Amino acid sequence: MARTRRVLISGASGLVGTALTKSLRSAGDEVRHLVRRDPRSSEEVRWDPGAGRLDPAELEGVDAVVNLSGASVGRIPWTAGYRAELRDSRLDTTRTIATAIGRAKAAPKTLINASAVGIYGDRPGERLTEDSAPGSGFLPELVVDWEAAAQTASDRTRVVSIRSGVVVAHGGGFGPVRQLTQFGLGTRFGSGGQFWPWISLFDEVAAIRHLLDSELAGPVNLVGPTPATSDRVTRVYARELHRPRLLPAPEFAVRMLGEAGQRLLLDSAEVLPTRLRSDGFHWKHSEIDDAVVAVVHGEA
């Protein structure tokens, strides 16, 4: 009988953290959560990433840490204050965990740290793998710093930076697209030819579990194996919700939402899951259609 694995998760109350916790516990693993308030049970551990506080002793006996903390990039506009929150919520948490790992008497074997496909920026006409150079601008530079903070723990543990695409799920990143479509306001944005990296929630969780058992280290793209354009994504939602699509929203109108609107809706990144595929991972939802159908019809 395999030994129970002990996993410590930050950002456990979020979409992915909640699903991951449920999946791990159903498999018999022991899961504890990092919380910023007083613990309510033995399954919670107090920390204060803003002050860089996490007792290294809490990592003793832990096999893996999964850090999913970070404010949502989907909130707009990106004011100066919110940009600071986007950075601090990622860098403070990652540095605090990396420091605790460095000071622990017996470090966890693995740190899986959230990252994002936003590292690539706007790259029309390119097929992007983990070996592709980062883009330029606020979001790519933030993700570069985020991954660098995680890598400071690499002399004590195996570090994996999961560059996740938009998670297709109830409450996921395509939520606004679904809501607009449900109200008959669905549309494509700009040309519609820009690629939106995506992954179903089921496969996001399955991929993290795969990486817990893998020997991969460094960046890993967590995206579906078949890239999808924004035109295709919005068409699938309109079809499955039995709603029309309006005329396209022109680029100048989207740009009025500011940099966040442009980065999230108009940027193109055809991201490929090269390392995940080579490591033998198998997707349940290999097409965006499969993922949207599962969510809309309650199969995911």
UniProtKB/TrEMBL annotation:
Belongs to the NAD(P)-dependent epimerase/dehydratase family. SDR39U1 subfamily. Residues 7-214 form the NAD-dependent epimerase/dehydratase domain. SUPFAM superfamilies: NAD(P)-binding Rossmann-fold domains. It comes from the Bacteria. InterPro entries: DUF1731, Epimerase_deHydtase, NAD(P)-bd_dom_sf, SDR39U1. Signal peptide: none annotated. This is TIGR01777 family protein. Residues 249-292 form the DUF1731 domain.
